[in-house]
């Protein structure tokens, strides 16, 4: 998330709201695809029933899924830098 000034050793603080109705377009979210066991930090963009999870680092691809196939683990609220 270099483009969002979130660096490798930063600790991200998440708002634990997991209801998709709280997520606004272009918000940074911790998202997990229903069939996977990993969470990713990406920008949320929704268009009808499709969601794009957009990286802020050019090395990673955009993930496009149906809205029903993504779970929100939290909404980005801030970060702590320099404690690790």
Brief synopsis:
The chain is mainly β and 84 residues long. It has a single domain, classed as Umud Fragment, subunit A (Ribbon). 0% of the residues lie in helices and 46% in strands.
**Order of strands, widest sheet:** 1-6-2-3-4-5
Q: SSE order in H/E notation?
A: EEEEEE
Helix run count: 0
Helix content: under 10%
What would the CATH topology be? Umud Fragment, subunit A
Please describe the biggest sheet, giving its number of strands, its sense, and whether it closes into a barrel: 6 strands, antiparallel
CATH architecture: Ribbon
As for the number of domains, it is: 1
The average pLDDT value, as a whole number, equals 92
Strand content: over 45%
Would you identify the CATH H-level superfamily? Umud Fragment, subunit A
The outline comes out as globular
Based on DSSP secondary structure assignment, what is the total number of beta strands?
Answer: 6
* Structural class by SSE content: mainly beta
CATH class: Mainly Beta
Kindly report how far apart the N and C termini lie: 17 Å
Radius of gyration, rounded?
12 Å
In terms of per-residue confidence, which ranges show pLDDT below 50 for 5 or more consecutive residues?
none
How would you explain this protein's 3D organization?
It is a single chain. By secondary structure, this protein is mostly beta strands. It has a single domain (2-80), classed as Umud Fragment, subunit A (Ribbon). Helices cover 0% and strands 46% of the residues. A hairpin with a 2-residue loop joins β3 and β4 (50-54).
């Amino acid at each position: 998330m270099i483009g969002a000034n979130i660096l490798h050793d930063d600790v991200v603080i998440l708002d634990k709201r997991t209801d998709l109705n709280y997520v606004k377009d272009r918000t940074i979210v911790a998202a997990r695809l229903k069939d996977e066991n990993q969470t990713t930090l990406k920008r949320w963009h929704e268009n009808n029933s499709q969601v794009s999870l957009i990286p802020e680092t050019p090395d990673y691809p955009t993930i496009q899924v149906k809205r029903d196939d993504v779970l929100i683990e939290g909404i980005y609220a801030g970060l702590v830098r320099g404690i690790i």
